[in-house]
Design brief:
Blueprint: H1 25-35, E1 42-45, E2 52-56, H2 59-66, E3 72-73, H3 85-91, H4 102-113, H5 116-140, H6 145-150, H7 152-162, H8 166-180, H9 195-216, H10 222-228, H11 238-269, H12 271-279, H13 281-296, E4 301-306, E5 310-312, E6 315-317, E7 322-326, H14 327-330, H15 366-383, E8 388-389, E9 394-395, E10 404-406, E11 409-410
Length: about 400
């Protein structure tokens, strides 16, 4: 692989150093603003792998890489470090780590499983779970919004959609937390070797057993649809089902929970935006959700591998180079968004990349996440209009996602 010609840190900004991701958020936002002043991709060295990489920090470059899958490959892996070959063999390939035709083939099977009847049931579940969560807030008066609300809604929705029995949900959630605990975390810590993989294995064995049962006796849930779907004779096998379930849980739960937590705090520290929203909740809720996703950007970055030598924004990229799409930076690009560091729930248009930059890997759960956020925020602000955070979110330093550990709140 050709080394980037300017891989030295720019003005002390070293995206590959875990210390960068422990900086205060405002410092990282300012650093990316400086990097966007460059004419194109910015070179840096990933300390975790020792690989030279190109940071895509501008909206246009992230869009280009997202929409050219024949040039920017997902197959080698979109995270750092890339998943080991034996891990992919044992646990199956996640859709995010596949290129066409395998990606298109799998996505077609999954898409066929989302029938109108299933989608109507999901919409009903989101409403019922949102009502139940607000009921519990009024009854129990918890103090951590993440634990009580933001994490519960997407997890319960996905479990209900997949048909996970109630008695198994707490155990699976504990396994998810163990599997996701160190993903992208920018700190040195004592880790138990293989703990995340053991949790993942146990979770996938549970789902595989449910898949076998649903194949014999379908019940109308998503697992039933995935294991009985017939798209040109194709349906999901046990490893594919487990990998898809893991993706739904880790990606779907983590991203929505973080967006909801950031959203409550943003609407607390921007009282004029909160007043606008409450003045016309139904009319402005959709815009508020989009702006919360843009501003908070729950997923910090995904990676691609360059397939062929070419130039991007005047910078030469060689086959085998790694590019890192920094969605949060793209969502603050001054060339696209006026006053990008301001929260504006009336922003229109709002072409944010919070669900990806388009192309075949655009977030499969974008519609679900939007629906969950709209429904829960409507329920919260209708019944508890004084709900607000009482402190800044406690963040987990991470180069992968904008993760909120806890958020103190009151109503």
């Amino acid at each position: 692989m050709a080394a980037p010609v300017d891989a030295a840190p720019e003005r002390g900004i070293d995206l590959g150093d875990p210390a960068f991701w422990r900086l205060p958020e405002e410092s990282r936002v300012a650093a990316f603003a400086h990097l966007r002043e460059r004419s194109g991709p910015v070179g840096f060295t990933d300390r975790a792998t020792g690989r030279n990489c190109w940071a895509l920090v501008r909206h246009a470059d992230v869009m280009t890489a997202s929409r050219a899958p024949e040039v920017y490959l997902s197959g080698p892996g979109v995270t750092s470090p890339e998943p080991a070959r034996w891990v992919r063999t044992v646990f199956g390939d996640s859709m995010v780590n596949l290129d066409d035709p395998r990606h298109a083939d799998l996505r077609r099977v999954v898409g066929r499983a989302f029938t109108p009847r299933l989608l109507a049931k999901v919409e009903e579940d989101i409403r019922e779970i949102s009502v139940r969560l607000v009921d519990r807030l009024e009854r129990e008066r918890p103090t951590d919004f993440v634990d009580a609300v933001a994490a519960e809604l997407p997890y319960q929705v996905i479990c209900s959609m997949m048909g996970i029995p109630e008695e198994q949900r707490r155990r699976i959630l504990a396994r998810i937390n163990r599997a996701a605990a160190s993903a992208g975390v920018a700190r040195s810590a004592l880790r138990v070797p293989g703990r995340g993989l053991r949790a993942l294995a146990a979770m996938q064995l549970t789902v595989a057993a449910l898949g076998r049962e649903r194949r014999r006796r379908p019940t109308g849930d998503l697992i039933s649809a995935l294991v009985t779907a017939d798209v040109d004779g194709r349906r999901l096998g046990a490893r594919e089902l487990g990998a898809f379930f893991s993706l739904l849980l880790v990606a779907g739960v983590e991203t929505t929970r973080n967006a909801l937590a950031h959203g409550l705090h943003l609407l607390t520290v921007n009282p004029e935006q909160r007043a606008l929203l409450l003045a016309d909740l139904d009319g402005r809720l959709g815009g508020a959700v989009e702006e919360i996703v843009r501003y908070s950007t729950p997923i910090v970055q995904f990676r691609r591998t360059v397939a062929v030598d070419h130039r991007l924004s005047g910078v030469r990229l060689a086959a085998g180079d790694k590019v890192v799409m920094f969605y949060g930076s793209a969502n603050r690009d001054e060339a696209v968004f006026a006053a990008p560091d301001a929260l504006d729930i009336t922003r229109s248009p709002n072409p944010h990349l919070g669900f990806g930059g388009g192309g075949p890997h655009f977030c499969l759960g974008a519609h679900l996440a939007r629906q969950e956020m709209r429904t829960l925020l409507r329920e919260l602000f209708t019944r508890l209009p004084e709900i607000r955070s009482t402190a800044a979110p406690e963040l987990v330093p991470s180069s992968f996602d904008h993760r909120v550990r806890s958020l103190r709140f009151t109503f």
